[in-house]
C-alpha cells in the first residue's frame, strides 16, 4: 500500500485473538502487513481475521500453544517457508497471576506463575522467529511489559519481577541480534482502559480488586487510582498502543533497538 508503514511485511502475532494482540494485528494489516495470528482459542483468532479481511487486509490463523516449543518452531518455520521469511513478531500472550497478595501470604507457586509463564513464552516465541529474520531483510521483535517493572508497590511481587524480566530480556536480545539486522523493542503500556470486555485478561486480572472496591472493572480503570496516578490522569487506549507498535515495527523507527517505549500515560517518567 502506498504510504503505509508496513508494506509487504510478514508479521506473526502470538496471542492474536486477545484484545491487545487483536488491536495490534488490525493496525498492522491496515498498514500493509500480511498478518499471521497464533493463539489457543480459534474462535477469537477467527474474529480478528474476519475484521482484517473485511477491511481489505490479509490474515491467517493457527491454533498454537506458545508453551509447546516444538509446535511454535514448526509454525514459524511453515510461515517462513510459505511467505519467504518473518519480518515482525509480537508476543501478546497473557498469563493470569496474582496481584494484591503480599509476601507473607504469597505462595512460591503464585510468585513464580507470571515469572515462568511470561518469560517462557517470550523465550520460545523469540527463538522460533529469530532464525527466520534478518540479513538483507530487517527484522523486528516487539515485546510487552508493564509499569510494574519499575514501580515500588506492595502486593505485585511476581508481576513486577516478570515485567522487569521481560524488559531485561528485550535489552539483552537486542544486543545479540543487532549484528543480524534484527531490532528488539519493548513496549510498556499501563492497564488498558478500553480492553476489559467480558472474559478478557484485563477484566479477569482486576475483577477481584474492582469488586472489593464496589466498582466495575471499567469504572476502576477509568476513574480509579491507577488512572489518577498517571500524569495524564488516564490510562492508554488499545488504539494508542497499536498505532505505536506499528510505528516501532516500521522502517521509520529503524534506528531504535534495545529501547523500552513508555506508554504508561506518565505512571512512570523515564
Automatic annotation (TrEMBL):
Pfam family, one: adh_short_C2
Transport keyword on record: no
Family under the similarity heading: Belongs to the short-chain dehydrogenases/reductases (SDR) family.
Protein name: Short-chain dehydrogenase
Lineage, opening ranks: Bacteria, Bacillati, Actinomycetota, Actinomycetes, Pseudonocardiales
Keywords (A to Z) from UniProt: Oxidoreductase
Protein origin, superkingdom: Bacteria
